[in-house]
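2024-03-11 09:14:02 DEBUG pipeline.ingest accepted 1 chain
2024-03-11 09:14:02 DEBUG pipeline.ingest length=140
2024-03-11 09:14:03 DEBUG pipeline.predict start
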Amino acid sequence: MRERTGSLLSSYALIWVTIGLALALILLGIASRYSLGTDNNPQTIEGDTGQVSKQLADLAETCWQRQQGEPESTVCQVTDIKTNDSITEGNFTRYLDCKKLENADHNCGQKDEVEWEVNCQQCSVKIQYRPGKLLIKALN
């Protein structure tokens, strides 16, 4: 009888451990989905205006695709840029895939899904998803 009771107790313990691990994985998944998604050490994008604009456009499209339809505002990326001339919204839009992210202000689709607040050669840039809009803003 004792062996059966010990075996039954170890079965219950195994079940509780399995449930605990499953709950931990679920909570980790939820936390990663709603986290800020930024690194503590921002990456640096360097090059001419075309290279930097293309990389910013790629980051913006990735943010938009991952967050589109979400109800909450999320900072996807903070990156430092260093280039030989100011990055303009027109430079940036030139490298957008207008089927993925539209910017009607610059003849890239019908919708205006980009809010541009960058006019610098060397600065930190925040890419932030807001429901229905993507904010790209210089921080300094």
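2024-03-11 09:14:41 DEBUG pipeline.report The mean pLDDT is 85.
2024-03-11 09:14:41 DEBUG pipeline.predict end
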